[in-house]
């Protein structure tokens, strides 16, 4: 599938475009700002964009009012079609955020329930107790997502709700020719609904990609041949930055062995999780890492390990953002993209990843592992790549059987001779493609 050979880029549209947090109802064509960034995306090596919510909502996008209308703060459906057409013309796929677990209080069906109560034709679209009360003093109780009552949980066992959501996806494919969906809080979704969604999407478009937001537990519960193609790799998200900050590369490598290693009990061997070092919900990686010189290295590890790498807008040049300052601080509007040494490095990683069979589909095996260094093998039928990371401030010489005498670094194109040990300079990373 195309997604397994891609480098993703995440944009949070409301923040990226500088829209006001509260929906002021004022229509403004902000979404076409994305078109201005296409040359940057092409230079960066991105070939898929995942858009966080962009449908009409109360505030942040995850509290939708209408699943078939682009938020007025961003523009119109026609405006977004121009964006999608331009992205597709540039060879960039489009993945939208499918928020199917809950809607906003402004959602038309919930507003009808508040108005007509037991007489509403939509009362069974939600989980409602007319004998209770809500935090908003509605004179009725309803289930909200994890206690957040601005997020009204949808009844995904109700056929009308299911059809409304599936028909909405059909509209998105028809209007914008989208290529996939990222499912918000996928771990909360009814499994039968996810199966219905997979079948429906397969009938809409060949190779339609489904990735789910998963935080913990066994991702195989939703990531399988009947449900999702992929899941967010939050286990390794934590392991990535923790390994650098604690100078303990054992943490991330052991997680990767647990997920993709050669043992029979490996959980996800042959599968493709979405890999990331930050996103719209967590502090930016430039803020989390204690040593700035580790920033290029964590991206090398993210691109070299099994999975589909995803870069969050702005982080490619090292933008900062602290979750402690609130979600809006993680979702700013940048006047224009920046380009620096980190951006150029990520661009090189993107080209290396997209062009490597081993990095896209290869197995995973740990070769050298210390607190501050790791070398692991990615091996496919026709290619073998050794990914080497030295996170130390001192040079390190690795002595190991590389299985070949010479290699080419697919990032820089430089030739490497394994004879006499492999010296890794301080704060360095290599992707060595071994001779057969």
Characterize this entry briefly.
This protein has 436 residues and is of the alpha/beta class.
Describe what this molecule looks like in 3D.
- 47% of the residues are buried.
- The protein is an alpha/beta fold.
- The strands form six sheets. An eight-stranded parallel beta sheet has the order 13-12-11-5-2-1-15-14.
- The two termini are 26 Å apart.
- It contains 13 helices and 23 strands.
Strand content: 15-25%
Q: What is the total tally of β strands?
A: 23
Individual helix count: 13
Largest sheet, described in full? 8 strands, parallel
Shape: elongated
Taking strands numbered 1, 2, ... along the chain, how are they ordered across the largest sheet? 13-12-11-5-2-1-15-14
**Whole-angstrom Rg:** 23 Å
- Unreliable stretches (pLDDT < 50, length at least 5) are none
The percent range for helix content is 25-40%
Ends distance: 26 Å
Structural class: alpha/beta
* Oligomer class: single chain
Average pLDDT, rounded to a whole number, is: 96
Key words describing this protein structure:
436 residues; alpha/beta; eight-stranded parallel sheet; six-stranded antiparallel sheet; 13 helices; 23 strands; 29% helix; 22% strand
């Amino acid at each position: 599938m195309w997604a397994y050979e891609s480098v993703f880029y995440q944009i949070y549209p409301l923040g990226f475009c500088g829209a006001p947090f509260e929906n002021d109802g004022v229509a403004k064509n902000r979404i076409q700002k994305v078109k201005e960034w296409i040359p940057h995306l092409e230079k960066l090596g991105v070939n898929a964009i995942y858009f966080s919510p962009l449908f009409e909502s109360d505030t942040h996008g995850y509290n939708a009012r209408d699943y078939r209308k682009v938020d007025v703060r961003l523009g119109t459906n026609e405006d977004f079609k121009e964006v999608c057409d331009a992205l597709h013309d540039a060879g960039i796929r489009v993945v939208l955020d499918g928020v199917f677990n809950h809607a906003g209080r402004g959602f038309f069906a919930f507003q009808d329930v508040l108005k007509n109560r037991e007489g509403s034709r939509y009362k069974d679209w939600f989980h409602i107790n007319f004998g209770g009360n809500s935090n908003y003093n509605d004179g009725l109780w309803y289930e909200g997502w994890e206690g957040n009552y601005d997020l009204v949980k949808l009844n995904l066992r109700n056929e009308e709700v299911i059809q409304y959501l599936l028909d909405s996806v059909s509209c998105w494919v028809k209007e914008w020719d989208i290529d996939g969906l990222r499912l918000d809080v996928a771990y909360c979704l009814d499994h039968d609904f996810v199966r219905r969604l997979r079948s429906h999407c397969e009938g809409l478009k060949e190779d339609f990609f489904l990735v789910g937001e998963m935080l913990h537990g066994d991702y195989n519960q939703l990531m399988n041949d009947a449900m999702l193609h992929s899941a967010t790799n939050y286990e390794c998200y934590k392991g990535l930055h923790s390994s650098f900050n604690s100078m303990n590369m054992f943490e991330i490598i052991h997680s990767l062995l647990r997920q993709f290693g050669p043992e029979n009990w490996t959980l996800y061997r042959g599968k493709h999780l979405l890999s990331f070092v930050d996103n719209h919900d967590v502090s930016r990686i430039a803020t989390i890492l204690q040593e700035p010189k580790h920033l290029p290295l964590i991206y090398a590890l993210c691109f070299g390990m099994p999975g589909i790498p995803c870069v969050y807008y702005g982080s490619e040049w090292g933008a900062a953002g602290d979750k402690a300052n609130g979600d809006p601080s993680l979702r700013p509007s940048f006047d224009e993209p920046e380009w620096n040494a980190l951006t150029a490095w990520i661009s090189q990683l993107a080209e290396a990843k997209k062009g490597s069979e081993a990095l896209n589909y290869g197995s995973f095996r740990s070769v050298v592992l210390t607190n501050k260094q790791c070398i692991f093998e990615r091996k496919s039928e026709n290619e073998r790549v050794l990914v080497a990371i030295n996170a130390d401030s001192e040079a390190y010489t690795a002595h190991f059987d590389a299985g070949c005498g010479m290699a080419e670094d697919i990032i820089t194109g430089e030739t490497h001779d394994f004879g006499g040990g492999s010296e890794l300079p301080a704060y360095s990373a290599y992707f060595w493609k071994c001779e057969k």
